[in-house]
Protein: FCGR2 protein
Amino acid sequence: AWCPLSPAGAQTTQLLVEPPWMPAVLWDRVTLTCQGSGTAGATAWYMDGQCWGQQGPDRIRATESGTYECDRPGTRRSHPVRVVKELLVLQVPAWALLEGDTVTLRCRG
Structure:
């Protein structure tokens, strides 16, 4: 598959994870949504740095462990989201945290 290069100075695409915990675990049926100012429906998806689909859907279900990223034409590649296949995992919220925030950690197995 051909994947576009991100232009310098472009807005970064956002990769949202549902359920909103990091690291995401496969047994949670993880859904990834690519959001950005680029063309909807023209999403390029990457796993472990390798492009595996262009002009695909804006939302996918993660079916393999790995590091996922996405971008759209005219935007920069998203920050990576790690999806793991573990029996026991310590998770933190997937949203941005600031110093002084109260944080709930989840230990799940």
Notes: The CA atoms of residues 90 and 107 lie 4 Å apart. The chain has one domain: 14-108. The chain has a mean pLDDT of 86. The domain at 14-108 is CATH 2.60.40.10 (Immunoglobulin-like).
